[in-house]
């Protein structure tokens, strides 16, 4: 579905990026979200990023996206990390 091998999906699972559910027969089952995350990691690995680093990057990107979404919901303006603070 995402062009990744079962071995790659196992590797990103071992790196802690995704945790698949298991069928009664013990087969790994991935959600669409997990496959999307694994596809992003695969893109990074294809560009030469080591798998552990790629997984960490994807986790941080996901956390940043979630924080930005929460800030928007709470009506807080997004801050530019390159701008000095007024404190």
Automatic annotation (TrEMBL):
Under the heading Pfam families, the entry gives: MerR_1
Which SUPFAM superfamilies did the record assign? Putative DNA-binding domain (SSF46955)
Name a single GO biological process. regulation of DNA-templated transcription
Q: Which residues form a coiled coil?
A: none
What keywords are assigned to this protein? Answer: DNA-binding
The organism sits in which domain of life? Bacteria
What is the protein named?
DNA-binding transcriptional MerR regulator
> What organism is recorded for this protein?
Actinopolymorpha pittospori
């Amino acid at each position: 579905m995402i062009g990744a091998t079962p071995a790659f999906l196992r590797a990103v699972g071992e790196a802690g990026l995704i945790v698949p559910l298991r069928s009664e027969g013990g087969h790994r089952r991935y959600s669409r979200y997990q496959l999307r995350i694994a596809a992003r990691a695969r893109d990074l690995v294809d560009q030469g990023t080591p798998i552990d680093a790629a997984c960490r990057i994807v986790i941080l990107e996901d956390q940043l996206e979630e924080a930005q979404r929460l800030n928007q919901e709470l009506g807080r303006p997004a801050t530019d990390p390159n701008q000095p603070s007024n404190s």
